[in-house]
Amino acid sequence: MRDVHRLEPTAASPGRDSVFAAWERFVQGEDHVRGVRPEVAISWHRCREQYRVDPHLSEAPVATARIDHTLEHDVVFTELGGLAVSVAHEVAGLSGIVTVTDATGRILAAWGDQATLGRAAEANLAPWSCWSECAAGTNGMGTALEAHGPVLIRGAEHWCQAFHNWVCAGIAVRDVVTRDPIAVLNISCWRTQLPEAAGGWLFNAVATTQGTLKRRARDSGAELVAAFTQARGRSGAALAAVDTSGKVVIADERASVLMGVPAYTPAVDPAVRWKSGLPDLIGAARYASKVAAHNPDWVGSTQIFTHLAEEPTPISIRPVFSAGHLAGNLISLGATEGAQLPQQAGPAPVPPRGQPRRLVAVREDRMVLLRLAEVYFAESDGNDVWLSTEQGRLHAACQGLDKLDGELADAGFLRVHRRYLVNLSHVREIERGAKGELVLVMGNQTTDMVPVSRRNAPAVRRALGI
């Protein structure tokens, strides 16, 4: 297994000339990027096709004036600032600088070699400039916001030619509940290679902050269990407590049946919380969390489709706070108290008919653009996702099956197991085991068999009409 604390060794990297030649071809419209690391090729694809960043941009744009940070995020920025100063001492001899950005890619502060800071300012590599991929293309800060773990971008791997003399390494601090990025710690050097140890510096620096977030998340889980216990004595409705991402922390017996999760089994640790597999619930919980963060007295209601139910079930959503921090929400199923949630609070709407939708995969040094109909199923292996397709087994560009599940929930794909997402149109047969378990036989040439977990079985039966 690769050591995630280390950046890829410089000696294993392609030469500047070959990467620059691939960059020139890709900028001109070619998709073949031989000699370029897959994570860089994928980032280039986002910059060209999705974000449409001008590769001849000479400096990063100024960040927008709007700031929407929570108190918890401010604590993260403060911790990273102190850690960045210590890292800056490590890279001082390399004429390097260290930056901290927020989740939008806005640089909050920079430290390090004064001469390099002055040169960086010429490209707006300085506070209050935006270095997200959608603003400045492939770079250490912006690409770290899109990835998990340390990211190294060298020379011509930057999407914008004006930044080709820089070497950057970044890592994102992520919310341990939602997995959304909060901040990025980044090292940048001018025409100087970073040592392999730079990945360890970054990883160790953010590990301290991630530990603080994990402890806070466990405290929030305990607060949700306490709020659930107290509310059960006042409510006759089915009741559950969910965190800010929509994962279930605890549910009573009736709610457990509707959500497909164990009853009265607290999941205080965010790493073991229950996924209901209900897109409507997840969308409503995330919307409620955004509203409640600005209006603590808010209570909302909507309708969601649940397991084993043909008709939508009304729910009421009430936020739970701990010391001014939003811990999650209490969900009362069968209740209609509170303001009605807007329709767009649920899953993403289906795109207009005829609009092409593609998945990006990687085969060796080439990107493969797949129509959804070409994909049989997706399988997770940690953060990696593998696609079983008409062109064989391919490594997906996206990180994490949860993200892919959210993107394809409205496109005929269904999560049937914590490790599998299936294109329902390619299910050829259904096998039933001796104990009632289901296995899906796919219609590809190898007739792969995909297991269905017990909690997902009702949704599979409903989707396939069995």
From TrEMBL:
Question: What's one GO MF term for it?
Answer: DNA binding
Q: Which InterPro entries match?
A: GAF-like_dom_sf (IPR029016), LytR-like (IPR046947), LytTR_DNA-bd_dom (IPR007492)
Q: Which Pfam families match?
A: LytTR
Signal peptide range: none
Q: Which UniProt keywords apply?
A: DNA-binding
Q: Where do the HTH LytTR-type domain residues begin and end?
A: 359-466
Q: Name the PANTHER family on file.
A: STAGE 0 SPORULATION PROTEIN A HOMOLOG, TRANSCRIPTIONAL REGULATOR-RELATED
Identification of the protein by name: DNA-binding protein
Taxonomic source organism: Pseudonocardia acidicola
